[in-house]
């Protein structure tokens, strides 16, 4: 399309001239050429290679709304894109250009291209009416002139009206004059005296001919009526009146006053002033002429930028039946005032800029103009100094908006850049325009958790699959760069993977328990949560989440001492050792819970003789309130309740039977047999019983042998104790001895069962050393407490 010219264009004279001066290229074509007509090769005129176009982003920036010209990017041919009507674009202007700019990047170049539109003779002259009437007095002497209405031709130059012609006759001729603006006007010239009696009406043909090739013309009829009597026309004092008016003159401002004189008398001397038909309708809207006084006043809005000079044709017509008219010209010159604001036009706008754009990146090209003249039209331009942008002046009234500093979308995602322009008038006029520049995001920020660490408290026995917590990480980037994905990182150095305990929702950070936690098995663990964005080069951060299991009262107290069999125990009491406050036994219970859930209290629910025993509420100690009497029954039965302090409270019941026996040795032996039987020998294999018995016998023999040796070495120490003493202490796996029982704890006290093995050392009384066998005897209640220690001190005492 752009490479060929249609067959119809072969009849059009096409003139194309290329001139590149000071960065501007000029071409010239006739108007009305067909679409696709070649104007020139802009690549050759700019000395560009075709391969540079895509790399340098060659583009056409048009000032007009219509794209009259287009460039073929494959070969650089500039061709006509739309039909060009010169009269529509430039009207009566002597020169007509279609201008646009071509822009290239890397580096940025702007070239102005002006295509001159040459007028062709495509319009014929036309009169406003097909017929005009003219009345001429027979008394008018030869040489009188009668202005005729001019024809209108939209063409310019040689193609506009060049002359007028009138049909041949013997009385009237035609005088063609050239006006100041170059247009032609015609006046009817009376060449021979008129005689109404010979010929009262003339029908003449008026023809307007332009200077185009071929010539075009327009015609109108002139009907001239010869009027009798009034033979004097009004005469103005000046052929040309001159006036100067400011363009901002208010409505009603006096421009000038015209005056004409008629030598006739009476009705023939009464004059009426008016504009002639040469004055356009537009001028008639700007000025008014008083028909009586001849005063010309402003009645519209004057604009120096639209027209600086107005030429008014006025006439004075008398009131005779055969009215005569006198004619004059009024030249009105306008003085410029600063009444136009500067205009800011922004082209090649990049509405989005990456936040990592380097300084000097071009954002927009700005053009600033002012329709005023002189200093009123000199314009300056600037932008605020608090934005990372600046203006660079490229040519007269042309600026480039470029980046001047580092951009950060997270600090300022967009900028409303206000461009201010003001002229040099007094006072100056200013205008502003705002450009919105948005920054596009790059992934330069890692997600950040709202806390450095998180502590999560979870009640044990939780429901698997329920949410226990939610972590939140914020990313100040935008779009996919701020989409956060959560995950749990397993520490390979640990034995267990905590991801088996919990899982996390990758989208919202909700943490879910995969199992029900048991405080008694697991009290605390840590997980490492990672937050990673979805950017092309993903960034991430981690946080430690401490999961703390809270205890729930889900374990009832368990009585570990005395030893229970079906929630009951038997304890033998030596009656001769009992006194008020005597510690019979101590109930010891364990609760696997913690805190208030493991705080135990003991309560006596039922007793055979409620007045004989008391139970410590928090200690669990069972003491006598008085001495044993003969009338007391031999067996006492107590029902105890042990409960914790949880909500709700859990409890355990125990029944303790006390047997009152007088013989200490017998009771101890029986009670020992009973305890062993209940604790160690219940439901055991007979072979296991034989092995344990043999091992115990050998162990006892070894202990006795060691005691005898120790006794011989420390005999002096043993003599210090005058009272019979019998106690035993156990040695744990760390070779530390613990003595039992305490003075207030007889042999019928049984502590918790331990899984470790123990070694026992027997302490002897002086009496027992005389015998061949060693017997364990209870400690006397009168033995000082300081001499029998329950701790791990005094390991050297035997």
Describe the structure in brief.
The chain has 798 residues and is mainly beta.
Question: How would you summarize the topology of this molecule?
Answer:
Layout: E1 19-21, E2 24-30, E3 38-41, H1 42-46, H2 52-56, E4 59-62, E5 69-71, E6 77-80, H3 86-90, E7 97-104, E8 109-118, E9 131-137, E10 145-147, E11 161-166, E12 172-178, E13 184-190, E14 201-210, E15 217-227, E16 235-236, E17 240-246, E18 254-257, E19 260-261, E20 271-275, H4 281-286, E21 287-289, E22 295-298, E23 309-318, E24 325-335, E25 343-347, E26 352-354, E27 362-369, E28 379-382, E29 389-395, E30 398-403, E31 414-423, E32 430-440, E33 448-449, E34 453-459, E35 467-470, E36 473-474, E37 484-489, E38 502-504, E39 510-513, E40 524-533, E41 540-550, E42 558-561, E43 568-574, E44 583-586, E45 588-590, E46 601-607, E47 613-615, E48 621-624, E49 635-643, E50 651-661, H5 664-679, H6 686-713, H7 715-719, E51 728-731, E52 737-740, E53 759-762
Parallel strand pairs: 2-8, 9-15, 17-24, 26-32, 34-41, 43-50
Antiparallel strand pairs: 1-2, 3-6, 4-7, 5-6, 7-8, 10-13, 11-14, 12-13, 14-15, 16-19, 18-22, 20-23, 21-22, 23-24, 25-27, 27-30, 28-31, 29-30, 31-32, 33-36, 35-39, 37-40, 38-39, 40-41, 42-45, 44-48, 46-49, 47-48, 49-50, 51-52, 51-53
